[in-house]
Structures are given as C-alpha cells and as structure tokens.
Design a protein that fits this description.
23% strand, 16 helices, 10-stranded mixed sheet, alpha/beta
Length: 582
C-alpha cells in the first residue's frame, strides 16, 4: 500500500467493512485503526481533512489540568496516557513545553488548591517518561518564586503576584500536519480517504420495524456526482455535527450535541518575544486563556461559549473577550493588546455530549443551548452510541472526545465493531500505542539528529536554512520529496511570502496529499495560512503552480483565486472592527 492521498474516488464502488463519516482527528484515527487491523475501510469528509475543529485547537496534546476543577479525573488520566503515546509516535511534530500557572493573592482556586491540582496532575502522569527519549522526558512540576516568574514572564502583573507553578505539557506544533500524517498512515494501511464529499443519507431498508444500514448516499462536491458507498457498518464521527448526520434517518436516536465555540487569536509576541513558556492567564473575573509562544508570535485562547448557529464566525466580542482577559493580567509596562495586534483568528466547534429524549428532532438547531449555558465546565469525555437500541442496525456514532484522546477512542470503537457487527471478520493484530505516524523518523526516538540531517540535505538541495528546518519538521521522512523536486527544478526552492514554505510544497500538497482547493493548500498543507495574513501575491502564485496539476484552465484558476480572496476577506470582516469603534 502507499501513504499517498490521491483521492481515489473510483474505489468507493468497492464493498467495505467500515465506512467512517468525518475526517477530523477522531474519524481519521478510526480509519487508521480499522485499516491497520485489516478491515476494508473508507472515510468520507465533507470539506478537507482536519478543516474543522481539529485544526482550530490550542495546539497542545495535553491532559487537561483544568478538568480537575470539574473532578473529571478519568478524562485527565486517559489524556495524560495518550499524551505520551502521541508524542512517542511523532517526535518531529511535538515539543515539550513548560506551562506556568501564576498564583495571585486573589486567585480562585486559591494558591494551595492550585498547587494540589498541579501535584495531582503530576501523579496522574506517573508513566509519562516510559520509553521516552531525553528530548521528550517530562520533569516534575516546581514552584517559581515571584522574582523567578517575572524573569521568565516579564509581562505579568506583579501586583499581588505570589509566584507560579511550572509544569509541562506537549506542544502539537502543527495540528494540521500531524492529522495529515495519521491520514497517510490510514492510507498506507489500505484505507480509502476522500475529502470534499458530502454524506446525504443512509443506504438501507426496513427489517421488522428496524432500519438496516447498508452504507451511505454521498455527493462528490468537486464534480456533483452522486455515489452509493456500501459497508457492513457505518461509524458516524462527524464531531459537532453527528446529530445532523443522524437527522437524515428521519427517526429519533436519543443523541444530541452541545456545541461550544472556541476562538483563538494570533498576535504580536508578548514580552518582546523572549518568553518561552506557555502561561495560564487567569483574570480576576475567573476567565482564563492560554498565552503560547508559537512561530515567533503569541497564540492566545480559547474562548468557550455555547452556540446555536450552524455556521459560527469569530465576532468582535470573541476577540474582545480574549484581549480583555489577557490585558487584565499584564504589567503596566507591557502595552495592552488591541485589535491592531491581532493578525489571525481561528474558530472551532467543540462537540460536547448531550442526551436527548425520543421526542427531540436532531435537525432542529434550537435544541442547542443558548448563550447562557455552561460549556466551560462540561466534560470532555467521549461516548460511543450503538443505535441498535433505537431500531437502527449497523450504525454507531461517536460523541464528545478531544484531540488528545482520539487514538484511544478509535481503538475502543474498532474493538466494539469486532464484538458486534464485524464478529467473524478476520482481523490482524495491530497496536497503535507503539506505532509511528507516517513520516516519523523513528518511534520513541529523539527527532533532533534526524531533523538536523534532513535540514542539511534540504539546504544542499537549495533551500534556505529557515525553509529547510521548517520542511524537515512538517514532512519528516517525506522531506525527500521536496528535496527531489527542488533538485530537478531549483526555482521550486523559492520561499512563499516569507513563511518558510517553498513552492515545491504546493506540488506535494496536490499530488501526494489530496489538496483540491487553495484553502486546502494554504491553510492545511503549508503553514502560510496559519502564521500571518496571506498576501494576494502569494495566493496567485500558489494558484499558478497548482492549476495545471488540478486541471484548471486560466478561467477556472482566476475564479478560484477570486473566490479564495473573497472567502478570506469575509472571515476577517466578521471581527476586524472592535465594538468600541463601531
């Protein structure tokens, strides 16, 4: 098998054991788990792999220390276990990062309770360093005095500051690329992964009052072609929209979703760029955000607000909430963040578990909470719904969950399939707990020597040092594809808009990574769309490279450029004006 993602839509005519709906991290992990065990597997994603919540994270693989405030110890323990597994499986795409939790006299919870939480968090991660190389080992937490803390984080407000607790979690350097690596792992195991395809309804028939699912009806959004994809069992992993998928059944399933909007902003670096630690910025109001140093800037968030719209956007109020929270924790010597400091925003919708009764219409958006609801304290656990108890056979849905625990959720899901619908179907042994993601140089090994060697070879091929280091990180062993392209055509080493990306990456995105739109390329194959506002010249250059590979003529290419410019302008327009200025 090959790890190449080439959108083999003709293969959807095959019969499958499992069809997965949704190409976020949970769906991708289910496809990887199922295919790796030898199951004939297809995954269908409405937009692009990881284009929703999975790419709008805080960029950490973490245990969720704040979940201890809700006494969700089981979720924290599972998350800490998975934090280690994910880091060992893709060492080139993670870094251990020190977090600092400042403690003021007015802190709620109070300082002693914060300390107890940090110690419990450490105790729950008792196996964190098993098989870990030195670069991924996590030390015990420690207390920083006020003076030591202010040296590390000079932008903090010193008034009432007592010190801070320092502990470690794992930075997910580029969630889009890590998710793609798992998608490539699934493809290498034999899974058929198709993006830009909408699941319209279920294939099946009634049997003694039950609905027997036999697959799905789908539409290829790139061609308009209708398809029927048949399978023994369907797994609904549509994240925040699992109830919308179930709504096509036309019968109640008892499953609902509380949707929570999480917004982040990318700003100038607080502290002048010298801060290397992530900081819990908790205001006296009780609100908190995480301020993370990332790609030379500060990445700040998230918000956590209930929503009832189906296509949420970032609003000025969202940005104001983040800026106000951070500014209230900052020293008077640090210039307050303003809207002018915000370069980009991201938005994701969290799928939180909600039980409904049999009278609920899952297509009715009014079933979601209004803005007075509390999603901040809602559990991040996952739940597997077997719909046979509601008269629907051969269908499962995955509710809740989080990025960090997606692998464990997938393992549990495939175990359930083996025990129910796929009993008797031959499966081979496979343990994702010790399996590297595609592109990983070596499982549970220090990535730095490999990265240094890869960067050297890329520089020799013609890339700048900045680009070589970035490409080595993003692609791992696949950096050779970039080197080969550049060796054949040195012009492909040209950087794109100062991001560190090079033009050869556009070719790899289309040919090997199933990118089919400009947004796929810019936002999820390159880093360009995640580190700054994208200039029109860069969009045009990327389109010129991609067009012949995608079969676009000049008219289609110009249409795609204009559509992408309009899309990005529309996203900005929702939040660019502060309420105070309106």
């Amino acid at each position: 098998m090959t790890a190449r993602l080439d959108r083999p839509i003709a293969r959807l005519a095959d019969d499958f054991d499992v069809v997965v709906i949704g190409g976020g991290i949970t769906g991708v992990c289910v496809a990887r788990e199922a295919a790796s065990r030898g199951l004939r597997t297809a995954l269908l994603e409405r937009d692009d792999f990881g284009s929703g919540t999975s790419s709008a994270t805080t960029k950490y693989i973490h245990g969720g220390i704040r979940y201890l405030e809700q006494y969700d110890v089981a979720v924290v323990r599972e998350s800490l276990r998975e934090r280690r597994i994910l880091a060992l499986g893709a060492p080139h795409l993670v870094e251990q990062t020190q977090f600092i939790m400042p403690a003021w006299r007015w802190s709620k919870p109070p300082t002693p309770l914060l300390g107890a939480g940090v110690l419990l968090y450490d105790a729950l991660s008792f196996d964190r360093n098993v098989a870990a190389p030195d670069s991924l080992r996590i030390p015990h937490p420690k207390w920083l005095s006020k003076s030591a803390l202010l040296k590390r984080v000079p932008w903090l407000d010193a008034d009432g500051l007592q010190g801070g607790f320092a502990y470690h979690d794992t930075l997910n350097l580029h969630p889009e690329r890590l998710l793609l690596a798992y998608a490539q792992s699934a493809a290498a195991a034999g899974a058929v992964l198709i993006n830009h395809i909408t699941v319209d309804s279920f294939v099946g028939h009634d049997v003694a009052g039950d609905f027997l699912v036999e697959g799905v009806h789908a539409t290829d959004r790139l061609t308009g072609r209708s398809l029927e994809v048949r399978a023994r069992v369907v797994v609904n992993a549509a994240g925040p929209w699992i109830d919308k998928v179930l709504g096509t059944l036309g019968r109640p399933t008892g499953v609902g979703v509380d949707r929570s909007k999480g917004v982040h902003v990318l700003t100038r670096p607080l502290g002048g760029g010298v801060v290397r630690d992530a900081v819990f910025a908790r205001a006296q109001s009780g609100r908190h955000v995480i301020v993370s140093p990332w790609m030379g800037k500060s990445f700040i968030g998230p918000t956590d607000t209930p929503i009832n719209e189906s296509d949420p956007v970032v609003t000025p109020d969202d940005v104001d909430l983040i800026l106000d929270t951070v500014n209230s924790t900052m020293s008077a010597a640090e210039a307050p963040l303003t809207f002018d400091d915000v370069e980009l925003t991201t938005i994701g919708v969290r799928p939180l578990i909600k039980h409904t009764d049999t009278t609920v219409d899952p297509t009715d958006m009014s079933n979601t909470p209004d803005d007075g609801g509390d999603t901040y304290s809602a559990s991040r656990r996952h739940e597997l719904y077997h719909h046979v108890d509601r008269g629907v056979r051969n269908l499962w849905s995955i509710g809740g969950g989080k990025w960090t625990t997606a692998r464990a959720t997938a393992e549990e899901m495939v175990d359930e399939l083996a025990a129910h619908e796929l009993t008797g179907v031959p499966m081979r042994g496979f343990d994702t707990r010790s399996a590297a993601a595609h592109g990983t140089f070596a499982w549970a090994d220090d990535a730095e020597p490999f990265l240094a060697s890869a960067a050297t070879s890329l520089v020799e091929a013609g890339l700048s040092s900045q680009s070589a280091e970035l490409v080595a990180r993003l692609y791992g062993t696949d950096h050779r594809k970039i080197a080969e392209l550049v060796s054949d055509d040195p012009d492909l080493a040209r950087p794109i808009a100062g991001s560190g990306d090079v033009e050869a990456q556009v070719i790899v995105a289309v040919v090997d990574e199933a990118a089919r739109t400009l947004a796929d390329i810019i936002d999820r194959r390159l880093v360009l769309g995640t580190v700054s506002r994208v200039p029109e010249t860069a969009i045009r250059r990327i389109a010129h490279i991609a067009a012949p590979l995608l079969g676009w003529d000049d008219t289609r290419r110009d249409h795609e450029i204009r559509a992408e410019l309009d899309r990005r302008a529309a996203l900005d327009s929702h939040w660019r004006i502060s309420p105070a200025r309106a």
